[in-house]
From TrEMBL, chain A:
This is Transcription factor IBH1. The keyword Secreted does not apply. Keywords: Nucleus, Transcription, Transcription regulation. The keyword Nuclease does not apply. It is found in: Nucleus. Residues 5-59 form the IBH1-like N-terminal domain.
TrEMBL record, chain B:
Residues 1-51 form the BHLH domain. Pfam families: bHLH_ILI. GO terms for molecular function: protein dimerization activity. Keywords: Coiled coil, Growth regulation, Transcription, Transcription regulation. Belongs to the bHLH protein family. The keyword Glycoprotein does not apply. The keyword RNA-binding does not apply. Gene3D superfamilies: Helix-loop-helix DNA-binding domain. This is BHLH domain-containing protein. It comes from the Eukaryota. Residues 41-68 form a coiled coil. InterPro entries: bHLH_dom, HLH_DNA-bd_sf, PRE. One of its GO terms (biological process) is regulation of growth.
Amino acid sequence: MQALHFLQALARIARAAPKPAHSARTRQIRHAAYASMAHSSRSSRRTWSRALLHRLRQRQQQRPGRLLTVRRRVRIVTPITSRPEEPARAETLRQLVPGGRGMEYCNLLEETADYVQCLRAQVQLMQTLLDAFSS
Amino acid sequence: MSSRRSRISEEEINELISKLQSLVPESRRRGSNRASATKLLKETCNYIKSLQREVDDLSDRLSDLMAGMDNNSAQADIIRSLLSS
């Protein structure tokens, strides 16, 4: 399902006329990659996929830029000082996994494992497409 | 009451740590069963960052590929027919 969604998005991008500039098309492809990950049947019930979709939609309404910029915005989340039992580096992980800041530590690990699997599948899919179409 | 709850959470956390260990390449190679959580989290962060960089790079290369499609109409026709939905 992740592959099908991505291929359909690629087809839309390929059919676009007039042809976009290289950098714009790269952004569209990257957007499609993360959208496909978030829409895959395994992940659609995950917090990270909902957070990612939200971020993608916000991105579409603004001028294009880096997709995974850390947003400087006041958020009401549990502050770090109230999580003394977490190992170091959990905070970095929270920033990397979409929606990670609001998660309980246990959920964070579970979401991370799922996110990593989807990321890996997406990378393999894109590499396969590149290999298949460039000769 | 609170100690029972924390024991269940600790088991779950250990399971999840094992799962993450099996997913992250560096941890698998080392083969240690007692990799510290901190080290595993650090490797997981590095792995996620490298995967995200790969998505960026592959997006760029796919964009190159699509740019070149119009120049070779036979190849472009094949690709379009495969991608059409």
